[in-house]
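Budget justification aside, the reviewers requested a transparent look at the raw inputs and outputs of the sequence design task funded under Objective 1. We therefore reproduce one unedited record. The lines immediately below are the structure tokens for a 323-residue chain.
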């Protein structure tokens, strides 16, 4: 492949990132220029696969499965050195080669994407974590070589935890969108603990307002996400100094989504939680001005006077997965 084709593939990934990953794209701008295109390539890879399985319009599940299988085969062929005719895969394959990324992470990601075609709910949080291992934790480990930690082994688990934190934040915010695709990512055992069913979530989505039990459920899941963020915080100062502003900003921007949900009274159905542009820019500026090596403050910046729901003892069952 010539340089022009490779540049076009990287540009396609960048465009996907800019269009769909607003907060993460802003954070990526804080990286050195030569690293940015590699982050765009990884985003493009994950986004393209996600779009295939989430295309719930006129495309049948069988056709989505065929498309994902076909794209996955082309990706694996490219890993084997075969020429690839695809708008984004050349950039992805180039990034994998440039940083010697673990191929197993990509295989795990594709397996999780394939499961979205058939799995519509998760009985327990342990079951959901099995899915998120491929859909989120591996993205953290894919990123590590690009971010250049001084001790990759020590930084690995915080990177995994940050991927899990980001994914769970999305699941909390996007309950209505996921329901529209026929999926519920909040564990069935959690719904039952608050006296809820899938039908109750669907009713709240239809009404555009959450009931008190649904708000309590959302508060519970936010506390779980916060524990992932706390486990991830120590990883940011481990990164190369030039990489820390990016991940520090991404950390606070995604946590900001949870803050917006709290400020909305834990109602994720009335409107989609979005961090305002002014706050996004402020977070990015603070990340740039923060000296490398400074610890990340793990606690959320909740609005003054906001009450926070307490975790129940049932969450102790999942403690091993979160530390």
């Amino acid at each position: 492949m010539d340089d022009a084709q490779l540049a076009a593939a990287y540009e396609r990934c960048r465009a996907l990132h800019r269009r769909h990953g607003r907060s993460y794209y802003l954070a990526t701008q804080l990286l050195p220029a030569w690293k940015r295109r590699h982050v765009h390539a990884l985003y493009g890879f994950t986004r393209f696969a996600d779009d295939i399985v989430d295309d719930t319009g006129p495309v049948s599940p069988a056709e989505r499965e065929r498309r994902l299988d076909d794209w996955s085969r082309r990706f694996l062929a490219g890993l084997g050195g075969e020429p690839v005719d695809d708008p984004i895969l050349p950039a992805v394959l180039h990034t994998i080669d440039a940083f010697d990324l673990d191929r197993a992470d990509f295989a795990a990601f594709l397996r999780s994407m394939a499961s979205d075609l058939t799995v519509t709910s998760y009985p327990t949080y342990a079951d959901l974590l099995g899915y998120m291992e491929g859909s989120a934790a591996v993205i953290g480990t894919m990123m590590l070589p690009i971010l250049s930690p001084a001790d990759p082994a020590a930084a690995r688990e915080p990177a995994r935890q940050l991927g899990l934190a980001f994914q769970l934040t999305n699941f909390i915010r996007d309950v209505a969108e996921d329901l529209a695709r026929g999926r519920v990512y909040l564990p069935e055992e959690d719904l039952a603990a608050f006296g809820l069913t899938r039908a109750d979530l669907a009713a709240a989505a239809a009404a555009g307002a959450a009931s008190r039990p649904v708000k309590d459920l959302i508060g519970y899941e936010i506390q779980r996400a916060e524990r992932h963020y706390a486990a991830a915080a120590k990883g940011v100062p481990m990164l190369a100094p030039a990489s820390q502003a990016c991940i520090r900003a991404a950390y606070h921007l995604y946590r900001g989504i949870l803050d917006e949900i709290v400020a909305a009274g834990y109602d994720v159905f009335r409107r989609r939680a979005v961090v305002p542009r002014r706050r996004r820019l402020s977070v990015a500026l603070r990340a740039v001005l923060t000296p490398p090596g400074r610890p990340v403050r793990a606690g959320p910046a909740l609005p003054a006077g906001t009450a926070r729901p307490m975790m129940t003892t049932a969450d102790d069952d999942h403690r091993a997965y979160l530390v």
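Residues 301-323 have pLDDT under 50 and may be disordered. DSSP finds 15 helices and no strands in the chain. Computational costs for records of this kind are itemized in the attached budget.
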